[in-house]
Write a structure and sequence with these properties.
With 278 residues, the chain is α/β, with parallel strands linked by helices. It contains 8 helices and 13 strands. The chain is 27% helix and 19% strand. β12 (218-221), α7 and β13 (235-236) form a beta-alpha-beta unit. The longest helix has 14 residues, at 82-95.
Length: 278
């Protein structure tokens, strides 16, 4: 019996085309709430970048698990080590790389370039305040967005041994403390609400969702996810622009006994292709 469902934002709740939550997703949330399932947000975004949506959440995992909140309380807070922040800023300054940093309450941008502007336009968020890169050195930073090609990932990973780089976009990678993940955030929320791991459901599409999909009792990859993400999910649904969340909920739910019974299928079958049993 599922008691909690976790949702990524970009490419899962929000379409990259419309930047909106679909009507089907709204209907799916109504079904979940009617069945008593708690819903939670699980995102790489900081709270300041989370848009208003027509669906509700009882808590949120932000910045890839760096800051987790529920019921007005902080359940988990784990910023990047200061010495590793300084190393990144040194490299970004030397090579003039566009970079953003997320603090608990703010975000800042340094050395903006055309690629950074494309990213802003694709995700449709307000441009953060532009500051000199050295102004970032005194901040407590939970997540860095490094606008750089994938070819640099191994170099930066070696420079920042206590961080990891969950890249989910070709323009940039997130940089977070190595033990932060959406899965760790799920664990903190489940402990807070007394929910067992096997009673969880998760939806995601990016590489930073892999740990979440693996940790969940049932992990569902969106149809628009990369194949490298889909292989870590229990199910694959349709894409975000074709009601992927509603499709999966409708295929997995059985309300016949006024209970929420999620049907399971073994990897790698997408929804609708595997035999379902209660």
């Amino acid at each position: 019996m599922i008691k909690a469902a976790f949702f990524d934002i970009d490419g899962t709740l929000l379409s990259f085309e419309t930047h909106r939550v679909s009507k089907g997703t709204e209907r799916a949330f109504e079904q979940l709430h009617k069945a008593g399932v708690r819903t939670f947000l699980s995102t790489g975004r900081p709270e300041v970048l989370i848009p208003k949506m027509p669906v509700s959440f009882e808590g949120m995992i932000t910045m890839n698990g760096g800051l987790v909140m529920a019921n007005g309380s902080t359940l988990l807070s784990n910023p990047i080590r200061d010495e590793e922040l300084q190393r990144w800023l040194d490299l970004a300054k030397e090579r003039h790389l566009c970079t953003m940093v997320f603090t608990k309450d703010n975000m800042f941008l340094a050395q903006p370039n055309e690629v950074g502007l494309k990213l802003r336009n694709q995700l449709e968020f307000e441009m953060p305040p532009v500051v000199p890169i050295d102004a970032m050195r005194s901040e407590t930073v939970y997540q860095i967005i490094a606008i750089m090609p994938g070819e640099m990932d191994s170099e930066v990973a070696a420079l920042l041994p206590h961080c990891r780089l969950p890249r989910w976009h070709p323009y940039f990678t997130d940089i977070v403390a190595h033990d932060n993940s959406k899965a760790r955030g799920m664990e903190a929320i489940c402990q807070h609400f007394g929910i067992r791991q096997e009673e969880t459901l998760a939806f995601g599409d990016g590489a930073n969702d892999i740990e979440m999909l693996e940790w969940a009792g049932i992990g569902v990859a969106m149809g628009n996810a990369d194949e490298s993400v889909k292989k870590h999910a229990d199910r694959v649904t349709t894409d975000v622009d074709h009601e992927g969340i509603e499709t999966a909920i409708n295929e997995m739910l059985d309300f016949s006994q006024d209970l929420i019974l999620f049907q399971r299928c073994s990897r790698p079958f997408p929804c609708g292709q595997a035999g379902l049993t209660a």
